Amino acid sequence: MRAVTSDDKEAIRSAFQRLSPESRYRRFLSLAETLSDGQLRYLTELDHHDHEALIAYEPETRNGIAVARFVRSPADPRIAEAAVVVGDAWQGKGLGTALSALLAQRAREEGIERFDATLLAGNDQMLHVIDSLGPSRLLAQDGPTITVEVDISHETLPTHMRGVLRAVARGDAELAPRELDDSDN
Ligand SMILES: CC(C)(COP(=O)(O)OP(=O)(O)OC[C@H]1O[C@@H](n2cnc3c(N)ncnc32)[C@H](O)[C@@H]1OP(=O)(O)O)[C@@H](O)C(=O)NCCC(=O)NCCS
To answer: Is 62 within a domain?
Structure first.
């Protein structure tokens, strides 16, 4: 995973074309099947301050498989619009959550405290990703789409620790008391 550069136009163009129509629609809320040269310039020529994007590559093929992006709001520098897309074959494996956590880290470094995301109301996977970043709430609903805000100002627990704590809360696991050893004396 690394920041997108202007050399990533071909990687992003082909990753977009490999997306299923449903994933493409969920991410861009549009039925377009290709990205124009202007869109590719917008998506890859970044200042890494007001507009940042992180790309994940498949190790063997070097194909781009996921992108997470924020664009700072012109109205409030503490807020950015965020969006994530993971290639269909890689969805449901934790990549969207991991890339979003890295994006939130980059955003905090740039003084951003809140992400807003616009998505289809039934997009449970994205809602889970948003919840993993911090406290969230519904800002607006417009037909089938919703806008959700999430406070990213505090780093959240790593994903595996949240899983452990949920298992404890459900009673599926117990926290063992730490055993004292000689170094405690
Ligand atoms: C939404 C998206 C980015 C999530 O990325 P992902 O890598 O597939 O998601 P993860 O594997 O990190 O899983 C995220 C959460 O969704 C849950 N999840 C996975 N598959 C799910 C499913 N079919 N239904 C509901 N929840 C699901 C996971 O359990 C996880 O929740 P948890 O962390 O509370 O356990 C990805 O699915 C995607 O690109 N979708 C199409 C584009 C899109 O919708 N973008 C969002 C617009 S802003």
So the answer is: yes
* Structural domain count, the chain: 1
**Domain annotation covers residue 47:** yes
Which CATH number goes with the domain that contains 137? 3.40.630.30
39-60 tens-digit pLDDT: 999 999 999 999 999 999 988 8
Closest Cα to atom 17 of ligand 1: 125
Percent over 70 (pLDDT), the chain: 86
Token pair of 63, please?
Answer: 């194909």
Q: Is the CB of 93 under 6 A from ligand 1?
A: yes
Distance CA 45, CA 38 (A): 10
Contact 168, 152 (CB under 8 A): no
Residue that wins the pLDDT comparison between 174 and 154: 154
Q: Is 101 in the pocket of ligand 1 (CB under 6 A)?
A: no
Residue 150 lies in a domain: yes
Can you give the pLDDT at residue 106?
96
The domain containing residue 150 runs over which residues?
2-169
Cα 96 to ligand 1 centre (Å): 6
List the Cα angle 113/78/48 in 5-degree steps.
90
Q: pTM of this prediction?
A: 0.86
